Amino acid sequence: MNRYDYIICGAGLAGVSSARILAEKGAKILILEKLSHVGGSVYDLLDDSGILVHKYGPHIFHTNNKKVFNFLSRFTKWNKYSHKVEAKFPECNVPVPFNLKSIEKVYGAEKAEDLLNFVKKEFGTDTVSVMSLVESKTPELSALGKFVYDNIFLYYTVKQWGKKPSEVDPKTTSRVPVRFSYDDRYFTDEYQGLPLESYTTMIKAMLSHENITVKTGIDALKRVKLENGKIYFDGEQTEAKVIYTGETDRLFGYCFGRLPYRTLDFKFETYKKDSFQPVATVNYTVSEDFTRITEFKKLTLQKKDGITTVMKEYPRRYEGKDGEIPYYPVETDESRKMYGEYVKLASDYPTLILVGRLAEYKYYNMDAVVARTLELFE
Ligand SMILES: Cc1cc2nc3c(=O)[nH]c(=O)nc-3n(C[C@H](O)[C@H](O)[C@H](O)COP(=O)(O)OP(=O)(O)OC[C@H]3O[C@@H](n4cnc5c(N)ncnc54)[C@H](O)[C@@H]3O)c2cc1C
What we know:
By secondary structure, this protein is of the alpha/beta class. It has helices spanning 13-24, 66-73, 100-107, 109-122, 130-134, 139-161, 199-207, 248-251, 296-300, 333-346, 366-377; strands at 6-9, 29-33, 44-46, 52-54, 61-63, 85-88, 93-96, 127-129, 177-179, 191-193, 212-216, 224-227, 230-233, 236-237, 241-244, 261-271, 281-283, 292-295, 308-317, 328-329, 352-354. Among the domains are: 6-45 and 65-70 and 195-259 and 330-377, Rossmann fold, CATH 3.40.50.720; 88-179, no CATH class. Helices cover 30% and strands 23% of the residues. The radius of gyration is 23 Å and the shape is globular. Flavin-adenine dinucleotide binds next to helix 1, strand 2 and helix 11. The site of flavin-adenine dinucleotide has 33 residues, from helix 1, strand 2 and helix 11.
């Protein structure tokens, strides 16, 4: 073990970018990954019909952070994909974020123009949050806000977070924009796309460094133990720093209780046709048990005729059973307090570093995870 300066638990984006940054500074790194593959949530692979799919949910890279983009661009080229999402209504699909195209589809072109004029007059900007519309003095805008809230957010949020409609706090959607322009891109970030080949290829390129050793299929918590401010590896005290990217409550044996999460069941379906739906992701905002369907070929821009694979996402409560993956932290005052207690405990271990979406109990986008590792280790 003395050969390693860092033991990294987890080979997701947080562990892998930490490893690469530190390896380039001359540190010797050992990464232990529980799963049989590297990449964590961004892992992708070819399915039985040769379609490149994202095993743990669709991932679209987007950022305004040039440093993050430049760092990752050393390990991959990008495709030119710009994310488009529609919401499935009974009569037709409408683009989301709700924009002038959506308004025209629902209300017709003439009324859309009236609404645009009302917005210019009252707000003087072309992007207004749903809640500002709901609370608008202009009855037509307030009705539009209510329509968008009820038909785009309410049921989707109920499914995503397992709440009753009455429990959904309107404030949770208060920052969601309605665009009074024809810009129907889901993300407006300067840099967006998917790795030209695959996320897994990018991750493997990041790991390809003489100072990095990766071992998959190993639960790090079977080898790394924390006791009285000291860290032990395979029973011997280690001077190596430990970067931990797994669940923090599990690291400490759930001593303050389990942090609540939502998990997802994914259902893949392959169809013998060129195309399944008009855009990569269709959100089911007023019907169905699943939240959305994503068609992978439309994200990856893979050329393959006569066959396509889609994925349905079913959110539910995470119970910590074998094989279940915690995806979304359920942030409440109580869970934040519990996480705070774990962090306090972690501070007894000066050579322990918690990084990433699980260890920091935070919803991080990919760019934010990489930004965090650059900030910590560069
Ligand atoms: C459904 C879904 C869709 C998403 N879509 C997007 C998107 O479109 N764009 C975007 O920017 N972000 C997206 N994200 C967020 C993105 O997945 C994360 O920001 C990023 O992957 C987090 O990386 P991470 O390394 O922190 O965590 P993870 O990818 O979860 O990696 C943690 C790794 O640690 C391993 N591990 C845990 N415990 C142990 C242990 N004890 N021993 C060994 N290994 C262990 C796990 O197996 C895992 O491989 C999405 C997230 C989800 C859930």
